[in-house]
Amino acid sequence: MSFPRYERYKDSRVKWLEELPEQWKHASLRYACGRITDGSHFSPKSIEEGKSYVTVRNIESGKVNVEGAAKISQEDFEQLEKAGCRPSLNDVLFSKDGTVGKVAIVENNDFVVLSSLAIISPHPEKLDSKFLFYFLQSVNGEKQIESLYAGAALRRITLDAIVGIWLPLPGLYEQQTIITFLDYEITKIDELVAAQQRLIDLLKEKRQAAISHAVTKGLNPNVLMKDSGIEWLGEVPQHWDVTSLKRECSLLKDGTHLPPPRVAKGIPLLSVRNIQCGKFDFREDDTLISEESYHTLCKSFIPKPNDVLLAIVGATLGKVALVPDGLDKFHIQRSLAIFRPVTRMNPKWLNFVFQAQKFQQLLWAHVSYSAQPGIYLGTLAQFRIPLPSLTEQNLITSFLDSETSKLDTLITEAKCAIELFNERRAALISAVVTGKINISKLV
């Protein structure tokens, strides 16, 4: 489908904007905005109830989730408000540290912000906040932002860089026409994305239900059952054993608590981040350690193919994966526990047991909290799990391999659809806010 264009264009002479409609202006945020600052550079003490302070984590889908924000005292709130850390209505919040580029428009300003967020106040006679909101999400905006990154370990963008961001500046009436068009079109795309996300959630529920039923009840619906004597298991097939992890694993340890020094080239020291979608693999940004440090860690154990890895520290506690064949040598950090089943247990069986919903609930019921959630190895070792014969384990794991593969394919297809919708979203925003489409001929 071809869209109407403006009659004449001009070269903006700005790399990230390229050509713009002849009648449009363009400017830096320094010109188009009154105030560009950031939030507090110190973290006030959190309390149970009080005033809200917001970080990048509270920016969700273009809005500020104040309900999920931490709370501070009235005194700290007033101090930060005086320091300029409270945004005004219709200000644009822009994440400048860590997850750079998340944006939201302030619709309720009963909060202050920390330094991970920039507060941008457009001049109302020059720039509509919603137009800026859309431009910062455009391909042109995102590429310009990426070119301004500072920092290696933690991506960030400085306030000095933010004020130098260039954007198109059509007249206010035309900005509002563009906003109306994008609000309508983007809502339709977001609804399609939400539908695919609901499908993914349903498929994941179905996947987990299939695993949970198979590893606790088996595949024969007519089998005689018995009380396992274990609260989380309930009834299991009468001929199954119930046994402890420490009895069925020849190796049950966690990774190093004292990571060796990093090196530029060396052996990967992996963590829970290396478990993605049930698979364990290397990443481009893995921590590397020296050969000497690796051999020191190997005095405790050497990871092998078909070892089962379980995340035992952090917000993603409970993620699980098998060590695949053919993976080059590596070692693990303390966020992972490693299990090596004895001969009467198929490692795939243990991998599926760990994924069962009731086992995941058991894990979290025994979590201890300090800086982050974690579970002790001694606690894990005592957990009791179901154990059919090796022949039946193999039948069940083959069944689950087939069933989960089908569901994983559908999940992947839905994720691809979301990716395509989001690409379409960004492309549409870019085309409209840079004048590649003449909206006045469409509305």
From TrEMBL:
SUPFAM superfamilies documented for this protein: DNA methylase specificity domain
What this protein is called in its record is: Type I restriction enzyme, S subunit
Query: Which positions fall inside the Type I restriction modification DNA specificity domain?
Result: 48-187, 292-412
Q: Which Pfam families match?
A: Methylase_S
Q: What Gene Ontology molecular-function terms does this entry list?
A: DNA binding
Coiled-coil intervals: none
The organism encoding this protein is: Nitrosomonas communis
Which GO BP terms sit in this record? DNA restriction-modification system
As for family, the record states:
Belongs to the type-I restriction system S methylase family.
